[in-house]
């Protein structure tokens, strides 16, 4: 029996059988390495995508908050100005009084992005302080000649609250080449004869005496956030969706942005006074991820696996 077992063992321990067994073991090692590399690369890709999604959401919310806080700060300026005008009396307010009043609000220091602040009597710009020394004031300009501005003015009167125009080209920028004209906004707040706000639309229309306003270019308002968009390599677009066929408000596209196939971005809708805006943000895929991806990580894992198998 011993001789029989010995003979059988010798039969299966030939050099050829050793090679066959080594090949089988090698294949098993390679298979295990393939599965491990694939699982690792998939987990890495999933984690990276989760982090990108969280970052995109955080930045979208932060930008929305920034825009709404800017708009709220402009409203506070208008409320302060309207209070000072009521104290002085609209009919008694001189150009010098207006200049002193605007200076007291420290506009250039606190809001360097604003282009101008003005006072409108009825529908005519009576006083205007321009914070860009290269631009001239629009004193004497009748807002009734510009339908978009005038409609926003009337809405402020009827609602007794701050209103903002859709994207417009300011008269100060009208002489620039068409492709270089920045989109801008004008925020209006109404003034009435009475100290208290009239309660009905009819009373408001009968008692309105004027308006205070501030204007701002979108690119200037958003400039403070562009460094953040650069740091995360994100594109950001703003649209006014209150009514159809309105041109884009604002768009920013970093030089190093790399688009990702299938990325739909993140869209958020929010209100800015009487207007409804929509933002859309896209994050650039990190360079190492855009080059490698799950497949690259998987392939990089193969040389060590094959080395182990051989």
Can you tell me about this structure?
This protein is α+β, with helices and mostly antiparallel strands and 310 residues long. The protein folds into 2 domains: 60-222, 2-Layer Sandwich (Beta-Lactamase); 228-285. 50% of the residues lie in helices and 21% in strands. It is built from 10 helices and 9 strands. It has helices spanning 2-12, 15-88, 95-104, 107-110, 147-159, 201-207, 218-232, 287-291, 293-300, 302-309; strands at residues 114-121, 124-130, 163-164, 184-192, 208-217, 234-240, 248-252, 266-272, 275-283. The protein has a 5-stranded antiparallel β-sheet, with helices on both faces. A 4-stranded antiparallel β-sheet has the order 7-6-9-8. A hairpin with a 7-residue loop joins strand 6 (234-240) and strand 7. Helix 2 runs antiparallel to helix 9 (293-300) and helix 2 (15-88) runs antiparallel to helix 10. It is elongated, with a radius of gyration of 33 Å. The two termini are 38 Å apart.
Major sheet size, sense and barrel closure: 5 strands, antiparallel
Could you tell me the mean pLDDT?
84
| Coarse shape | elongated
State the name of the first-level CATH class of the largest domain.
Alpha Beta
The whole-angstrom Rg is: 33 Å
CATH superfamily of the largest domain: PAS domain
CATH topology of the largest domain: Beta-Lactamase
- End-to-end CA span: 38 Å
Strand order of the largest sheet: 2-1-5-4-3
- DSSP summary: helix tally: 10
Number of domains: 2
Order of helices and strands: HHHHEEHEEHEHEEEEHHH
Number of strands: 9
Strand content: 15-25%
Structural class: alpha+beta
Specify the CATH architecture of the largest domain.
2-Layer Sandwich
């Amino acid at each position: 029996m011993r001789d029989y077992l010995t003979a059988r063992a010798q039969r299966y321990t030939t050099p050829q059988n050793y090679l066959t067994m080594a090949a089988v073991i090698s294949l098993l090692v390679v298979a295990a390495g393939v599965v491990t590399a694939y699982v690792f690369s998939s987990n890495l890709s999933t984690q990276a995508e989760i982090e990108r999604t969280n970052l995109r959401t955080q930045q979208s919310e932060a930008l929305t908050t920034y825009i709404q806080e800017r708009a709220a700060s402009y409203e506070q300026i208008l409320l302060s100005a309207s209070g000072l005008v009521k104290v002085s009396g609209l009919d008694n307010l001189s150009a010098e009084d207006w200049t002193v009043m605007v200076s007291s609000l420290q506009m250039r220091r606190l809001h360097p992005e604003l282009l101008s602040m003005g006072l409108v009597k009825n529908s005519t710009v009576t006083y205007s302080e321009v914070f860009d020394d290269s631009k001239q004031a629009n004193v004497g300009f009748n807002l009734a000649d510009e339908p978009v501005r005038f409609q926003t003015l009337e809405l402020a009167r009827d609602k007794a609250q701050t209103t903002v125009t859709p994207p417009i080209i300011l008269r100060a920028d009208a002489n620039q080449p068409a492709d270089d004209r920045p989109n801008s906004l004008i925020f209006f707040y109404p003034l009435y004869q009475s100290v208290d706000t009239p309660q009905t639309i009819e009373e408001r229309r009968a008692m309105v005496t004027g308006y205070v306003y501030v204007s701002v270019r979108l690119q200037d308002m958003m400039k403070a956030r562009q460094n953040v968009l650069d740091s995360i390599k994100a594109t950001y677009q703003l649209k006014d969706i209150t009514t159809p066929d309105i041109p884009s408000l604002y768009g920013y596209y970093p030089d190093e942005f790399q688009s990702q196939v299938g990325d739909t971005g993140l869209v958020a809708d929010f209100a800015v006074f009487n207007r409804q805006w929509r933002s859309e943000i896209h994050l650039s895929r990190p360079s190492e991820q855009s080059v490698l991806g799950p497949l690259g990580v998987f392939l990089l894992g193969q040389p060590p696996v094959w080395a182990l198998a051989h």
